[in-house]
Amino acid sequence: MLAIAGVLLSLKEEKPSLSESINKPIQASINQSAGDKNLSNIGSEFFPVRNWLIEEPEISAKSAIIVNFKADSKKGDILYQKNPNQVLPIASLTKIMTAIIALENFNPEEIIRVSENSVTITSDKGGLIRDEDLKVKDLLYIMLMESSNDAAMALAEDNPRLTYPEFINLMNSKAKEMGLKNTSFVEPIGLSPENKSTVLELSNLTKYALNLPLLSEILKTSQTVVSSTDNKFIHNLTNTNKLLNKIPEIIGGKTGYTEEAGGCMLTVLNISNNYLITVVLSATQRENDSEKLINWVQEAWLWQ
User: Is residue 83, in this structure, part of any structural domain at all?
Assistant: First the structure.
């Protein structure tokens, strides 16, 4: 352990000036060394290791985080944070909790008839048709991939099992059950600025969602087609996550935006069998911020 600490301290002490960093960019890897010091003799249990030669990125988001969850561990390690406990509106990242409540209380094959109230909801819509019948799992695809507000309303209000207030109460009860003390919901969509959380708590919420196989599958799907149960209506879906398929390490994500919340985005990454979650809130450039964080975490940390 003392040897590892010495190596990391020497890396930090040999940190170059900003101009030197620009002139001599350094790509972090297992074989990278600072001077004649090599990190290849460090055991796998100590990875990832911070490379202090790489400075933290500047981003537009008010709050951001990168959390590393190893595949065989429940413990998450924070690799980057900016105001991780600041409570902010979360826009359509709300729909992660909406999906959890729907999947834990309804059968995915259960059929929901879409109401007039759901299809007339304001803002982003999934093109649902009044009185069309859709399976719960198909409404989840529409809601999470296209950030459909009408699909979210259909799940919360049109289902035959729960009243709308009961659905919202379950969202808040689930947050308390998970220990998310700063997370609260007043509706299932994210239009209200009263739907709030922190980047730290959203990373834990996302990790929970990924343990539900259907949600994990939906979050990584870039395009698909679903149809009403009678096949009269077809919905061609494209994921709102513009970084999906652009960055190979991304295996999922969700976007959100309202005027009050600004740009919100989470991504799920797989790097060397480590599962990372990035979250940005109140950003003016959510995709750019997320891409910066993803590039940075691969350069600023040494991965086995």
Answer: no
